[in-house]
Task: structure prediction
Amino acid sequence: MIVWAVDPKRDSLQSFMDYIASYAKEILDAAGIFCRLRLPFDCEGIMLSGPVRHSLFLAVKEALNNIIRHAKATEVELVMTVQFNQLELVIRDNGQGFDLNSARLGDGLRNMQTRLVALGGSCAIISKAWRRHNG
Result:
């Protein structure tokens, strides 16, 4: 992964998306979780520096690891859109969720937010706790 992150021949958003799609499919398949990808068709002309790609990758990796370890999800959707020179990356799952008001954000979620804010972006964590109703 480190070689990919600093390889200047891989500076395009297209290369990043291809890598993330492959990575997500591989680790989610290994966990028995279906992965749905919705990615722009062609972003070859949009460039990302190595440090930006690396930080984005670490944020995606953390989100996927949290889903695998905690969500009890059976399906994940990864959506990337580019509008007005801004990249939006959404990772959704059908897992159990958690209550944001009572949950303690772990280091991983805080690190995701810190990394993305340092890039000039933002990180929104949206969750609804799933409750099993008896009866």
User: Anything to note?
Assistant: The CA atoms of residues 81 and 88 lie 5 Å apart. Confidence is low (pLDDT under 50) at residues 1-5. The chain has one domain: 2-118. Residues 2-118 form a domain with the Heat Shock Protein 90 fold (CATH 3.30.565.10).
